[in-house]
């Protein structure tokens, strides 16, 4: 099994200035913060990066900034997803993917395809590129759940190397872990459930909170992967309140407030999202400084 995308990946936010423009200095600083915090790899332009509100030119600028700031220190994964199969294929084929280990592509949202539709969608993406593809199942956002059976069917495609599984259905996760091919990565997409998933045989996490508390969260994951469950769960239980705060008013408002408190970047988001409320900000501040 490939070890490149094992451990703790983080879905980077896109920092903004007060006027709504991209804060490239903040983004560069965030990359450094994650590298220094012993994160294992970085995911660019995922949901947490507010990619749906970025123009094509802004997306390319974010990619360029992360590549330059990273200086080949950590493996990179690029989010390319949506609900128009043809448009995703066009984007995959038009982008320079040479700096990326893999593409992370979410289950199509809003259309609510059948399981066969989901399979054929990913089959088309697989045939359109030689790049490795990581599936991303997040029913709470997409309105469609990719079943374990569909995931395992897709796992037979040569360049589909894993899944970021963000369902809260533990039985579904266990079915995938039980019957996955030998080299197929199962990566948690839920910060609170990442450690239980690892202890059940999973390969790590693509995290939101990990970029806000990189040292603590990545240490928890390393301990879990090493079979040191007791020590790992001690860290998880300490972090549970801040994990809750990160998602209390939606993602990435919470994590951006955490990053502001840690002096990494400002907390501005783009509409239709809004900044964390004063009450949530106070809870985050109290947790981080207590």
In short:
47% of the residues are buried. The chain has helices spanning 24-36, 56-70, 85-94, 115-128, 139-142, 148-154, 170-179, 194-199, 214-225, 229-248, 253-261, 278-289; strands spanning 7-11, 41-44, 76-79, 102-106, 132-137, 160-165, 185-188, 204-207.
Structure description:
The chain is α/β, with parallel strands linked by helices. The chain has one domain: Aldolase class I (TIM Barrel, Alpha-Beta Barrel), CATH 3.20.20.70. The protein is built from twelve helices and eight strands. An eight-stranded parallel barrel has the order 1-2-3-4-5-6-7-8, surrounded by five helices. The radius of gyration is 18 Å and the shape is globular. It starts with 6 loop residues before the first strand and ends with a helix. Keywords: Amino-acid biosynthesis, Cytoplasm, Diaminopimelate biosynthesis, Lyase, Lysine biosynthesis, Schiff base. The record marks 47, 110 as: Part of a proton relay during catalysis. It catalyses: L-aspartate 4-semialdehyde + pyruvate = (2S,4S)-4-hydroxy-2,3,4,5-tetrahydrodipicolinate + H2O + H(+).
List the defining traits of the structure above.
290 residues, TIM Barrel, 12 helices, 8 strands, alpha/beta
